[in-house]
């Protein structure tokens, strides 16, 4: 470790077991690096002509001597940044250097002195906490690590200690007041807070280099990792979380909430009816800002089950709660071993979405808010560690070993393949259109053309004429459902249309019909307005025949699965249709 000798302002190098008591300076760098006194400038006469020498270096050395310390550490001139190895070692050690300093001087160059006539004493604390120093990434660890910290104005007048300003700083930074009050060099006072809580301290802080938003947090989470400038902030932040996973059993690391900007329109959709989709995510947050609501999250007592990251994603045991257990909460929820502080309703749960085409028990993160699950609804009480073993019973929902996939994807945004999974035994499939895309052995229709119309013609063993099942030109919409399917009687208009449908397309110029339009169906039919095929515009849904469409996969490829069925007791209109036939 290099230190500046305060009296002569020259660099002296010490081995780890010989480091003397020292003061340390915390400040924000100038936008013009030429103004700062750098490692190469020390010992040169030119250093004294730089603005930072008179504003920071010389006053910091003077203050150190006044407080009885012969050495001071300043990041601009005590690190040889031309050496990548030294820079990496310094950044990995910086939290400890600040923590083991005897005193830390915080220089706020944008805060006036208390003696300035223009300064109103009643709002002076607000001026301090509005300093740019409180918005920078690197100064976060410089705020919480030292045991003794004093703030100084632009003229180096004493503004107060961290302890005396703790209330105002806590309101500004969301950092617990007792951490700011502490004057002992004890890393546990920082590391004892939940991972989510510590992440929330970095919300809205900024760094000049994008990767530094992750690197500046290494000391706060007591992890070390190599610096890879150029990888980008998201990859750097992912690596930071991976290192935290290796050293912590705190599941609050998963208690992030995506930023609203992630709810984006799916790109590359050709279907004109495509609506907004919500992006699926992996287990890791993209930025500390996604922990903006996590300042009051604390872990549940007890030792969580093990979890670890793999190349495919996060393998973890969670209590998985399906939507039928939570009224008014769609989707699947994974229960974490954490909760909001002083809220004893129950644990927090993260929104999940099954990814069966990726493998068994594979999920993705939906970009919904966290929810608190009422613990009275969870009969698996072992998550709370609040009862003897004999009182615990296995019930639904159950704990499962799942994977939160690293690179999830939505199924129906990627292809138009269709599998005719089943139809009634009393019906016979007599034709599938377009025939050139249909494989009767596998009952699969493969097409990447969103405009292809799919039609299946069935014949009932007891009744005639046949009926047809018609699909809209594309399934690329919010979710596949019955609104994408139309079922019709087989009459002369449909037969003539089918003759022109050999390749899956219809040409309006060859039919004397009006263009396709929107039809308002009754509430019993569809409970919504639907787009229907224009050449069947005048035909209604055929009662008595039912179709179901769902997402699925075959050998890892996304498919839509179609199942055709008959009602057990056809309604009156269907009976009328049979009798008239």
Main sheet attributes: strand count, strand direction, barrel closure: 7 strands, mixed
- Order of strands across the widest beta sheet? 2-1-4-3-5-6-7
Total count of domains = 3
Share of helical residues: 10-25%
Shape: elongated
Spans of 5+ residues with little confidence (pLDDT < 50)?
A: 264-276, 385-395, 477-483, 504-543, 569-581
First and last CA, distance: 95 Å
Share of residues in strands: 15-25%
Number of strands: 27
**Distinct helical segment count:** 13
Structural class: alpha+beta
Average pLDDT over all residues: 79
**Radius of gyration over all CA atoms, rounded:** 33 Å
General description of the model:
This protein is α+β, with helices and mostly antiparallel strands. The protein folds into 3 domains: 191 residues, no CATH class; 154 residues, no CATH class; 163 residues, no CATH class. Helix content is 19%, strand content 22%. The chain has 13 helices and 27 strands. The strands form 6 sheets. The chain has a 7-stranded mixed beta sheet, with helices on both faces. It has a 5-stranded mixed β-barrel with strand order 10-11-13-14-16. Helix 1 links the parallel strand 3 and strand 4. The N and C termini lie far apart (95 Å).
Element layout with pairings:
Elements: E1 2-5, E2 10-13, E3 23-26, H1 51-66, E4 71-73, H2 75-78, H3 84-99, E5 103-107, H4 124-129, H5 138-144, E6 149-152, E7 158-161, H6 166-173, H7 177-181, H8 188-191, H9 195-201, H10 212-215, H11 233-247, E8 297-299, E9 307-309, E10 313-321, E11 332-335, E12 338-340, E13 348-354, E14 362-365, E15 371-372, E16 399-405, E17 418-422, E18 427-433, E19 438-439, E20 444-445, E21 455-460, E22 467-471, E23 485-489, H12 492-499, E24 518-520, E25 529-531, E26 545-554, E27 557-566, H13 572-580
Parallel strand pairs: 3-4, 3-5, 5-6, 14-16, 17-27
Antiparallel strand pairs: 1-2, 1-4, 6-7, 8-12, 9-10, 10-11, 10-16, 11-13, 13-14, 13-15, 17-20, 18-21, 19-20, 21-22, 22-23, 24-25, 26-27
């Amino acid at each position: 470790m290099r230190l500046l000798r305060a009296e002569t302002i020259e660099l002296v190098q010490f081995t780890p077991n010989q480091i003397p008591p020292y003061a340390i300076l915390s400040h924000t760098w100038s936008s013009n690096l030429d103004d700062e006194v750098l490692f190469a400038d020390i010992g040169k006469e030119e250093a004294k002509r730089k603005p930072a020498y008179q504003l920071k270096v010389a006053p910091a050395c003077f203050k150190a001597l006044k407080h009885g310390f012969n050495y001071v550490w300043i990041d601009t001139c005590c690190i040889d940044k031309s050496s990548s190895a030294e820079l990496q070692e310094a950044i990995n050690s910086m939290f400890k250097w600040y923590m083991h300093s005897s005193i830390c001087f915080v220089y706020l160059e944008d805060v006036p002195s208390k003696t300035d006539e223009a300064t109103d004493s009643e709002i002076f604390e607000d001026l301090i906490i509005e300093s740019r120093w409180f918005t920078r990434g690197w100064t976060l660890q410089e705020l919480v690590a030292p045991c003794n910290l004093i703030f100084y104005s632009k003229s180096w007048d004493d503004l107060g200690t961290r302890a005396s300003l703790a209330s105002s700083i806590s309101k500004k930074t969301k950092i617990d007041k007792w951490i700011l009050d502490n004057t002992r060099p004890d890393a546990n006072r920082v590391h004892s807070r939940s991972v989510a809580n510590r992440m929330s301290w970095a919300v809205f802080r900024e760094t000049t280099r994008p990767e530094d938003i992750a690197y500046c947090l290494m000391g706060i989470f007591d992890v070390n990792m190599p610096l890879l400038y150029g990888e980008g902030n998201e990859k750097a932040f992912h690596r930071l979380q991976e290192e935290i996973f290796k050293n912590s059993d705190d599941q609050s690391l998963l208690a992030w909430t995506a930023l609203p900007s992630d709810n984006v329109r799916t790109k590359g959709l050709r279907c004109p009816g495509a609506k907004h989709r919500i992006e699926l995510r992996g287990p890791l947050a993209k930025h500390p800002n996604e922990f903006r609501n996590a300042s009051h999250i604390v872990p549940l007592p007890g030792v969580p089950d093990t979890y670890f990251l793999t190349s495919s994603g996060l393998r973890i045991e969670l209590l998985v709660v399906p939507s039928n257990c939570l009224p008014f909460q769609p989707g699947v929820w994974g229960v974490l071993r954490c909760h909001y502080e002083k809220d004893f309703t129950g644990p927090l749960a993260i929104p999940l979405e099954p990814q069966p085409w990726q493998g068994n028990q594979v999920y993705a993160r939906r970009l919904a808010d966290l929810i608190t699950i009422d613990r009275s609804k969870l009969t698996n009480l072992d998550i709370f560690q609040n009862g003897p073993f004999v009182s615990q019973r296995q019930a639904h929902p159950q704990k499962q070993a799942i994977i939160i996939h690293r690179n999830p994807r939505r199924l129906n945004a990627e292809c138009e393949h269709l599998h005719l999974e089943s139809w009634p035994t009393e019906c016979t499939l007599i034709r599938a259109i377009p025939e050139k895309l249909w494989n009767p052995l596998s009952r699969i229709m493969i097409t990447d053309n969103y405009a292809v119309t799919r039609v299946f013609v069935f014949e009932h063993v007891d009744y005639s004429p046949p009926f047809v099942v018609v699909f809209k030109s594309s399934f690329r919409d919010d979710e596949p459902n019955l609104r994408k399917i139309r079922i019709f009687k087989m009459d002369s208009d449909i037969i003539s249309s089918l003759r022109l449908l050999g390749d899956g397309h219809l040409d309006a110029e060859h039919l004397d019909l009006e263009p396709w339009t929107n039809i308002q169906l009754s509430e019993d039919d569809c409970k919504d307005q639907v787009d229907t095929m224009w050449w069947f515009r005048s035909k209604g849904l055929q009662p008595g025949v039912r179709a179901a469409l769902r997402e699925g996969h075959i050998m890892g490829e996304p498919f839509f699965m179609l199942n055709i069925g008959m009602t057990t007791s056809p309604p009156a209109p269907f009976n009328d249709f049979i009798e008239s036939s």
